[in-house]
Amino acid sequence: MAARGHGGPWPRPESCRVIGVANQKGGVGKTTTTVNIAAALAMHGQRVLVIDLDPQGNASTALGAERDNQARSIYHCLVEDEEIRKLAQPVPDIPHLWCAPATIDLAGAEIELVSLVAREARLKRAIDAYDTSELDYIFIDCPPSLGLLTVNAMVACDEVMIPIQCEYYALEGLGQLLNNVNLVQAHLNTGLKISTILLTMYDGRTRLSQQVAEEVRSHFGDLVLETLVPRSVRVSEAPSYGQSVMTYDPGSTGAAAYLEAAREMAHRTPGTGR
Ligand code: ADP
Ligand code: MG
User: Fold this and answer.
1) Given the CA of residue 254, which atom of ligand 1 is nearest to it?
2) How far apart, in whole angstroms, are the C-alpha atoms of residue 14 and residue 256?
3) How remote is the CA of residue 3 from the centroid of ligand 2, in Å?
4) CATH 3.40.50.300 fits 17-160+169-193+230-267, yes or no
5) Rg (Cα) of the chain, in Å, rounded?
6) pLDDT tens across 43-98, in order?
7) pLDDT single digits (tens) 102-150
8) Residue 5 — left, alpha, or beta (φ > 0 → left; ψ -120 to 50 → alpha)?
9) Average predicted confidence (pLDDT) for the chain
10) Ligand of minimum distance to the alpha carbon of 24
11) What is the 68 CA–ligand 2 centroid distance (Å)?
């Protein structure tokens, strides 16, 4: 219990932690994890910015951000050097939480970025220009691919967090993801590390979920958070109300799990699993 930091306020990191939430597979819980861990941290006094880097904009929707076609979005930071500060929106009902939204423009960014100078480092540039002394965490919700948007996230962040769904084929493609992290580390961002793995949509009644969880733990050891996020209907309902499950149904098992996962993250030294 003490290691998970029960009781007492959550410690602030010494400097802002920039965490990319990545897995090129769709539907594994990247967005859900980003939104709910960010909300849980903010509800415990941390200052948090979510950058929505997925053209589908699901994180923006779940955080109640405005994203009509007129709205400036993270696309403009990447392609037009807009400042993040100018488009980050406060999240309704959750103090200390902001969202830099995605709009559908971002769908073209993978192509448009190709011809730009320092195309892999556009997001890093935008984050470097932001006064991060005002923040404790930046979470970057990546799209389900390993293209230039995800590479931009990996160049801009210090830590990669990988949600893994406790399902058949969960580990398929993970090698490719790890390989990409290694490539970015070797050539573009030497400080990059995988800091956190979170098991999502766990169903304790099935042998399969248990097997996947065991396999991931035996492979990644202390990088895997102790907390398992269970499959929970409330978690999947929350986004349609423009909310995180943390505000939509704080008493649900999903909210409790994300709160625990956030607490573990806040109390760990990144990358050591302790
Ligand atoms: P990704 O961002 O990796 O594509 P999402 O976070 O959008 O994945 O999740 C995929 C789908 O699964 C969404 O419909 C989401 O609401 C649902 N989902 C995610 N986590 C849970 C959970 N713990 N319980 C039930 N449904 C979940
Ligand atoms: Mg997503």
Assistant:
1) 23
2) 26
3) 30
4) yes
5) 17
6) 999 999 999 999 999 999 999 998 776 678 999 999 999 999 999 999 999 999 99
7) 998 999 999 999 999 899 999 999 999 999 999 999 999 999 999 999 9
8) left
9) 93
10) 1
11) 19
Q: Which runs of consecutive H residues, i.e. helices, occur in the chain?
A: 30-43, 58-62, 74-80, 84-87, 109-114, 122-128, 148-156, 174-187, 207-220, 233-237, 245-248, 253-267
pTM of the predicted model, to two decimals? Answer: 0.95
Tokens in use for 104? 């559908």
Ligand at shortest distance from the CA of 227: 1
> Which amino acid belongs to residue 163?
P
Answer yes or no: are the C-beta atoms of 59 and 23 closer than 8 Å.
no
**Is there a contact between 162 and 198 (Cβ–Cβ < 8 Å)?**
yes
Apex 35 CA angle, 30 and 40, nearest 5: 125
Q: Tokens for 6?
A: 């029960």
Using CB distances shorter than 6 Å, the residues near ligand 1 are 26-32, 58, 144, 200-201, 229, 231-232, 235-236, 254
Domain residue ranges in the chain? 17-160+169-193+230-267
